[in-house]
Structures
1.
Amino acid sequence: MDDSEEVIRAIHMTDPEIPLDLVLHTPGGLMLAATQIAHAVLKRKGKVTVFVPHYAMSGGTLIALAANEIVMSEHAVLGPVDPQLGQQPAASILKVLHQKPIAEIDDQTLILADQAGKAVAQMEQEVGELLADKYPCREGP
């Protein structure tokens, strides 16, 4: 969170008309921090270019999606925007609900799965908001 506060402060302190370049090399981190940075990037008037020299996973990908342009080295990768609960991917926790009968799942896992579902839904919404102006939905054929 301290890093996100510094990044957001730097974004706000930079003249909004000046293009901004961000270098992302991250395994991800807290989705709250990544979401806050992504929204700060999205709201900038000036062009924001994200450079990914090696990898930007999860929260890093979320930030990259908010930029006007993503520049990646030949072998660089973006990872899935996959929220984690503790050390476990939310999608994997949800998978338990589909693989076991509900009577065989302990209460703690059910509670964790509920939280995982909410985390995945929130990230789907965030990604949708970040991409809405770039890839508007078309209605009809």
Note: Residues 1-81 form a domain with the 2-enoyl-CoA Hydratase; Chain A, domain 1 fold (CATH 3.90.226.10).
2.
Amino acid sequence: MRNHERDESILLSLKRLDYLSRSQLQKLHQLGGERNARRVMASLSEYLHSFRGDNGESIYYLTKAGRERVGADKVRAKLADANHYLMRSDAYLFFKASDWKNEMKFTIPGTVQVIPDAYFLLNMRRYFLEIDNLQSLSKNKEKLEKYRKLKASNLLQERLRYFPTLIWVTLTETRKKHLENWSEGLESKIYLWKEIK
């Protein structure tokens, strides 16, 4: 019975986060050492696909049977570069936030639409999460302009009484500095991926 609950919670984590590495699953579900984690994941092979990530570690996502078992709608496939998703999953593990929503749309018709990588609640405050995995710097600048327009609308401030903090996870100090400079006027925090792993 206990294994059944553990298996369900692993599949539900993959429904929520799309892709998880073996080490992320170990942390999230207390799977013990690498050998035990591999055994547990092998026992779920009917419900999971996997592929090797950049560092040689297995990355998992739901099969059709896995999606049906936990009621997941999104169909995921093997990726050449899963780091964007792994960075988001590391942020989920790092912040231990409640009410985590991936890619939630914030739209002001005719003005702006923003789709953060995640929107979550932590210590009674809301946050936007943006993952910068080798995205062009000009795209990041455009995204920050969209957040400024969203803030200028006062839509969220009317509902929340404040504008959520924008959190970035990026890869290099150089990119971090650019994001810090461009984030003026927005409350933001910028982390390197290695800081939250």
Note: Residues 2-17 form the longest helix (16 residues).
